[in-house]
Structures are given as C-alpha cells and as structure tokens.
Amino acid sequence: MNILVLGSGGREHAFATQLAKSPQCDQLFVAPGNAGTRLLATNLQLAVTDFNAIKAAVLEHAIEMVVVGPEDPLVEGIYDFFKADQALNRVMVIGPSAIGAELEGSKERAKEFMATHHIPTAAYQSFTAETLKEGQAFLATMNPPYVLKADGLAAGKGVLILDNLAQAQKELELMLANAKFGKASEKVVVEAFLDGIELSVFVLTDGSSYKILPTAKDYKRIGEGDKGLNTGGMGAISPVPFADSVFMEKIDSQIVKPTVEGLKKEGITYEGFVFIGLIKVGDDPFVIEYNVRMGDPETEAVLPRIKTDLVTLLEATANHNLDSVPLEIDTRAAATIMAVSGGYPETYEKGKRINGLDKAHEGFVFHAGTTDQEAHVITSGGRVLAVTSLDEDFRVAIKKSYQTLEQISFDKIYYRHDIGFDL
Ligand code: AMP
Ligand code: GLY
Predict the structure, then answer these.
(1) How far is the CA of 187 from the centre of ligand 2 (A)?
(2) To test the ligand 2 pocket, which listed residue (72, 218, 274, 303) has its Cβ within 8 A of the most ligand atoms?
(3) Dist CA 131 CA 128 (whole Å)
(4) How far is the CA of 400 from the centre of ligand 2 (A)?
(5) Residue 61 maps to which CATH number?
(6) Peptide bond preceding 304 in cis form (omega within 30 of 0)
C-alpha cells in the first residue's frame, strides 16, 4: 500500500523509517518531510493543514493510509475531512476525529473528560476574562507553586508554573484580559501542583481495544540538570526504569482503560495514538496532559523498540481489530539525544552545513530540522538531529548515542550531555 506521513520532524523520520521497513509498504511519501525522509520516501511540498492539497496528493499517488505526525491537522479536523469526502473516505487516517483531538486542543475539555471518567489528575478550576477576579481569589486559596494553563494550543508554551502568588495573579490577568497567548488563553485552567517525577505513556487505540506502547521520559529544558528554557524536547529514554510492572498495572487500570472506555462511552471516533503525560506522586500516577499524537523526541526512542510490523499495527487500528495483533517489544533500552542549533529555543541561525552524516553508525540518526542544499544537508530548524541507540543497559545506549554525535558536526551544534542523569 502507498502511505503518506504528515510532518517534518524527527518523529516523522522515525515513522518513515519503520514504515519503509514493512513489506506491506509500497510507495512512501512524507509531507513536507526533511533531508532524512527524502532518503527513504518521496517528500511532497505541502503544508500539513492544507487539506485540499493533501487530498490532491492522496488521489494522485493512490495513497491508502495517512499517518498524522503533529496535532494541528488533527485539531483542525483532518480525520473528519477525509471521512466526509466520498473520494477519500476509504483512506485510513491514523489519528482521532476532531472531537477526540479536543483532549489536546482544550485543557479544560481534557480536565472535564478526566473528571467524568474518574481518571486521577490535579484538582482544578477554569476561568475566563469575566471570572478573572474569582480566578485570582481561587489562586489565593491554593498553595504554591501555582500552575496556570492556557486552554488552547500554544505551541507548548501555554503552561506557567509560578512560586509567587502576586505574580500568578498578574499572569492570570495577562492571559485572560491581555490575550498573552492569543485565543489560546481566553480560558485558563488553574490547577494544583503535583510534586513527583514525570513520564509519558503511549497508547495506540482503535476506539475500543488498545495497546500500551513502550514508556518514555523526555528532557524538556535546554540546560543540563533540567535548567533553563523549555524546548520541544532535548532527549528521551525508553523504557522508563522506575515504571515497573506494579506501576504500569496502575497506569493501565486507573488511566489507560478508563480513557479508552471514556472515549467509547462518549461515542468519540479515535483511531490513533494517545500520549499521556503523567506524574508519579508517591506510588500513584496522575495525568498532567493528553496529546493526541506521538511525542517528539519520544517517538524516536519508542518506535525503534517496536518489533511488530508498524503497517500491520496501524492497519488494525483503522480496521478496529487491534486486539488481533500481538505487540512485540525489543527488550533493549533506547536513548535519544537531540542536537540543536546554538541559541535554540530562542533565536538561532539556519543554513549550517552538517558534516559526518555519512559515517557508519550503529543506531539511528533521525533528521528533524534539516534540508538539502545542492549536494549537502544543511540545518533548517532549532532541533536538527535526533540520535537514537539501543542497548540492554540504558546507560550504554546513552553512551553510544554520544559516540555517534561526536562524529557529527555543524556550526554552533549544542546538545545536553546529561540525558538520563536522573534515572
Ligand atoms: P504540559 O504542557 O501540560 O505538558 O505542561 C508542561 C509541563 O508543566 C509538564 O511537562 C510538567 O512538567 C509541568 N506541569 C504541568 N502540570 C503540572 C502540575 N499540575 N503539577 C506539576 N507540574 C505540572
Ligand atoms: N516532547 C513533547 C511533545 O512532543 O509534546
């Protein structure tokens, strides 16, 4: 079958790598893709939210499956667009319907969903410009640190964690009354701070049955020791060593099962990935967020560990028979380290020539922000490459990824040297 992957990051290069390996995959397309995906697929120059251009490409190339990488097309309703179009409605779209995508598109909706289905999460209330005063009064009843979340998509920047009450009250005002995050902060969720260690759980569901994919932990801050500005993610380790079978059983019974059953009870069509951000408080898991797609760079650590043919898994997802496919996981750990452009996540330069990509290395070098310029691969984004290695011992996997990175260079390359330091 011909398959299209939407997106252009390391996550999409990892998807393309696994899909290309499948004997079921004939022609593979990535839109818009990067210099890495071009080596195993045909890149199509179109925007992931340009549904009419995607339709034209799907029809032209007889594409039978669309794997959606980022959240924007899902929140904007790509699944529903396909199903409502006679020429497209037999194409498999891996992702939720727009209503399902609200779990990521609206923090308030996600909190309501968790409350309805008794899924453990932090206590909260949500506020609008009209209820700003109540919101500030609510903050005064809480203990620091204060957690403020813009309701809508804010490119990963919409969560503020503040130690000082006056500052939290001021920020609430900036979000609600001064549109700090534009439309995304017309509503704000104020929630209790959860003190614990974070991990992410990835689930593939066809809407009634589900598979729990390998766990991962990502490293969001730019600086070593988890200091400095938030980024899209600087590295990931899979599996998470502290997520033992007892804890995973709690995650399954208290969170994953009620989530999938909740979707079903509410009649929500969902044929895709659920990425659940969790905090382990004491011995118990609490949900901090849902994403309706895979994570980046978590995908670069999770997918290489899945031994089951990915096309088979995704086809079963779209055909509602996921329970008939056994999931086989590589017991080795994966360590992904992200190499970024100096200056990221603030301003950085692009167009730097990348050297060393042709050196033989054992693991995977997934491209994120890269493009081709004549015969060279150059940088085109903040996050440039995601290097993944596998080993029975996650510490050795980490070491191997650093060894690969030592072979690779570009002007102002930066990566954290402490990925996995806390495990
Ligand atoms: P989110 O965009 O929802 O993933 O939030 C960004 C980050 O804020 C998370 O990765 C957590 O580190 C942190 N966070 C979010 N909600 C809470 C909470 N209730 N308690 C503590 N930390 C939180
Ligand atoms: N790495 C976090 C995310 O993909 O949202």
Answers:
(1) 22
(2) 218
(3) 5
(4) 23
(5) 3.40.50.20
(6) no
Atom of ligand 2 nearest to the CA of 11: 4
- Tell me the pLDDT tens digit for each residue of 103-152: 999 999 999 999 999 999 999 999 999 999 999 999 999 999 999 999 99
Q: How far is the CA of 159 from the centre of ligand 1 (A)?
A: 7
Nearest Cα to Cα of residue 146 among 134, 155, 154, 138: 138
Cα 341 from Cα 374, distance rounded (Å)? 21
Ligand 2 atom showing the smallest separation from residue 220 Cα: 1
Which of 134, 163, 191 is a domain's end point?
191
Q: Whose CA is nearest to atom 19 of ligand 1?
A: 193
Query: 241 CA distance to ligand 1 centroid (A)?
Result: 21
In a domain, 308, yes or no: no
- Can you tell me the distance from the alpha carbon of 175 to that of 181, in angstroms, rounded to the nearest whole number? 6
Residue 346 in tokens: 């603030």
| pLDDT higher than 80, residue 360 | no
Write the CATH number for 167: 3.30.1490.20
Whose atoms come closest to the Cα of 121: which ligand?
1
Q: Are both 132 and 48 inside the same structural domain? A: no
Residue 131 shares a structural domain with residue 87: no
Distance between CA atoms of residues 352 and 380, nearest Å: 8
Domain housing 156: 124-191
Task: Examine the domain organization and report whether 87 and 17 are in the same domain.
Answer: yes
Domain contains 408: no
Ligand nearest to the CA of 297: 2
Assessment of whether the complete model's pTM goes beyond 0.85: yes
Q: State if residue 298 touches ligand 2 by the CB under 6 angstroms criterion.
A: yes
Do residues 7 and 53 share a domain? yes
Of 136, 162, 191, the one marking the end of a domain is 191
- 295 in ligand 2 pocket by Cβ < 6 Å? yes
The answer to the question of residue 172 being in a domain is: yes
Predicted confidence at residue 359, as pLDDT, reads 86
Which range has the worst mean pLDDT, 28-42, 105-119, 323-337, 352-366?
352-366
What is the spatial distance between Cα 296 and Cα 177, in angstroms, rounded to a whole number? 32
Asked whether residue 260 is domain-assigned, the answer is no
Whether the CB-CB separation of 202 and 294 falls below 8 Å is answered with yes
What is the domain count for the chain? 2
Segment 68-109, tens digit of pLDDT: 999 999 999 999 999 999 999 999 999 999 999 999 999 999
Check if 100 has its Cβ closer than 6 Å to any atom of ligand 2.
Answer: no
Question: Could you tell me if 76 and 128 lie in one domain?
Answer: no
